[in-house]
Amino acid sequence: MLAQRIAAALNAGVTDVGFFWLTGLAKDGTIVVANNYGLGYIPESVNLPEQVRMATADESIPAAVRGSWATYPILALHGWAQHHDTDLRAVIATEDQFKGFDPGAPKIVLRPDDIPDNGNMDGRHRLQVISPGTAIKLAAVSSSGLSDLLPPPPTDANAPEDQRSQLWFEVFRPLLSNVPDRAAVQLAAFVSYADHAQELALHRAHTATDPADQRAAIADWIYWQHLSVLMSDALATAATV
Predict the structure, then answer these.
(1) Domain that residue 13 falls in
(2) 72 with 147, same domain?
(3) Tens digits of residue pLDDT in 51-95
(4) E-assigned strand segments in 20-169
């Protein structure tokens, strides 16, 4: 089954502590995925096949609704299905990942020998997933025009201090708790991380000498901007409800 192979590939080579994916198969055959880190987060090395939908990156669903799913990927799968007027035919995960919650649909359990050594898949990189229109526009920019996409460089040419490790731990920390507001706590921590990550990416874009490296850095800069805005919107909207 294609959905099972995709679920297995997503769970290969995971390096983020506590991070995991759930994969849902909708009754109409759509494959939808979600993870327990923020909204729209996809590890840098992961590509999603064209037919796969990411629940928390679906912009037809209000940010505040998606924000309520943060840290609970099973809520994301069912919430996505409900929004699209369908149901889940199955939920696919490892035995450990199924512990502690009712999937609300038939389970397909991934065994250790189902997980490939290499989870690489052909498909869309993360900017293409969360903002396909932006990715198309970036791809159309010539190498000589890439610098025109950037704001003026700062007067201080030194790279910002890299604080990603500390900030990433704060993104993970809420997963250690079952308090009702852990979704909002993680989203707030993720905004801080995304703001810092885009600052680092912008520096790489300003200093890159190879056009391919500059294009990749710009894609990262835009990606983290998008995530910061999305999760900030989710928090702000939820606060006014």
Answers:
(1) 2-114
(2) no
(3) 999 999 999 999 999 999 999 999 999 999 999 999 999 999 999
(4) 21-26, 31-35, 52-54, 88-94, 107-110
